[in-house]
Amino acid sequence: MKVKTILVSQPKPKTEQSPYFSLSNKQNIKIDFIPFIHVKGVESKEVRSQKIDFNNFTAVIFTSRNAIDNYFRLAEEMRFKVPIDMRYFCQSEAVSYYLQKYVVYRKRKIYVGIRTFDDLIKLIKKHKKEVFLLPSSDKLKPEVPNKLDELGIKWNRAILFKTVTSDLSDLENVFYDILVFFSPSGIKSLFENFPKYQQKETRIAVFGNTTVKAAEEAGLIVNIAAPSKETPSMTMALDRYIKEVNKK
After folding, report:
1. In terms of residue numbers, what domain contains 72?
2. Vertex 227, ends 221 and 231: CA angle to 5°?
């Protein structure tokens, strides 16, 4: 079956240069964006119940923009004045640049990884005397705490935000040729909203091994998977698939 419509289970890109818009124009298809999950910040009393005191830390590990937003939100709510000499360890350049929303970048001690958490571990290893705080969601890959424990450093995790299932009831009678997922939480949201969901002729596209596993465990057939050597991005994987089926 030819592909005419795609639903991406993420928010609509804010930049017009998004490869999804290029794909839509190139293949003459309709692409909609609806987040299947969203982030909800916890209240300060929940942070205290975790026995987390921001005063006890000399460094913060940021792996996402959500972690940054919720750390500074709660710091303000809890009347904690972030010290000027606080050290920030950011997983990527994109995360470190976002930090400028809250701090004067050139006046802070900021350490930036290349892309992965392993890149960041190399930097953290050089500052073992610090006491690290890891702001995170309630969903955290087990390798993250494992790798921090292996370093033998002083650190604590603080759950500052949670991944919550979005209400998708508006989609009950709407059908797409392809559904695109980026996390197991997105798959979970699909079935929480539609417990009797049947794939039928809908194609499923997933990004990442854990998402593939979650989709298959839920009984879905994965038709498009990324990343791969040939298609390192989801848009490239979609483009390749659409070329194949739409030329028939």
Report:
1. 40-163
2. 100
